[in-house]
Amino acid sequence: xxxxxxxxxxxxxxxxxxxxxxxxxxxxxxxxxxxxxxxxxxxxxxxxxxxxxxxxxxxxxxxxxxxxxxxxxxxxxxxxxxxxxxxxxxxxxxxxxxxxxxxxxxxxxxxxxxxxxxxxxxxxxxxxxxxxxxxxxxxxxxxxxxxxxxxxxxxxxxxxxxxxxxxxxxxxxxxxxxxxxxxxxxxxxxxxxxxxxxxxxxxxxxxxxxxxxxxxxxxxxxxxxxxxxxxxxxxxxxxxxxxxxxxxxxxxxxxxxxxxxxxxxxxxxxxxxxxxxxxxxxxxxxxxxxxxxxxxxxxxxxxxxxxxxxxxxxxxxxxxxxxxxxxxxxxxxxx
Length: 335
Prior knowledge:
- The protein is α/β, with parallel strands linked by helices.
- The protein is 35% helix and 12% strand.
- The strands form 2 sheets. The chain has a 6-stranded parallel β-sheet, sandwiched between helices. A 4-stranded parallel β-sheet has the order 1-2-3-4, sandwiched between helices.
- The protein starts with 6 loop residues before the first strand and ends in an 18-residue tail after the last helix.
């Protein structure tokens, strides 16, 4: 049996048993030599440095320290980084790519719960669940008599901004419903949109014509305040903005002004900053529904991230390429 390559965990230590429960850890240890009791949340300790010197595969996650030149110099045998989370921007450096180290991300696995959360929010928002629940609680009686006009998901116009992994997953989840779904993404052409099964619109037109707009663009300098005062003013009165991507995509001051005017509603799982300051109006506005970054992998969902990493490690052990390799050329326009 060939010798297993040396691996090292680099993440917040308490997350290791959550991301890699016993059955996944056993699969991982069958193809790499890794000690679950040795977890690097920095690379300065003597024992970590000793193992790092012979590490070929770094298994990273939330809390991984930056992989700068000094760390990479201390890991001369490193050939792969398998990230049990989404974006790798927070800890990779140009030196990683310059040295030809392969990097894999579990971003596709993390997109699953985000898309599921967003689907649920879209369907609930279409039924005006958030406002009707509050009215029922206030009145302790039905807040309407007979059929309530203006709500429902039959033909509801939903605009997806960004054909990211999450955006694409969401498009698939929306397909069985009687919704009119459109897409805006500057990197998608008509052929690709047809393959995804949705009409492609310019962002302004999507904002003008949709009842629910859901954001799935990456956080980059070019997408900061992608949705600002001008864009919010394009949205029809009564429409809903959903953000499960990054808080910086939305100008919160402009959004608060629209919410205070009662013209729009918002469902925000991400904010800027995160968490919001204690005095933020978004906590109290009746047409703002704010959750604490729950859409991404939580609870039992984080094991899906571990499974993605284990499967990548098994591919490496079999001499195959990585299925979810990160392309550094695309980092400037991806999460």
